[in-house]
Amino acid sequence: MQLRSELTLFDVTNLVVRGLILLLIGIAIYVKYSPKREITELKEALLSRDMILRRAYRQEERFLAHLLMPVNRAYRRVKKKE
Length: 82
Description:
This protein is 73% helix and 0% strand. The chain is mainly alpha-helical.
């Protein structure tokens, strides 16, 4: 069985048509399920200074690299002793 490395014009056209169909389906889904009016309370809550600081603090608490910091310190100590 041989593998084809070339795409014919029909293949390219077929891929472009499929991509456009998927794009149109995505736009239709977005239009159907997007909010019809702006949710001002939610927008104010998300953009307020207080909420931004809270989110930043929560994000800092679960920063995944905190797990690696002790490993990094131990590695530096071992390297320093050598």
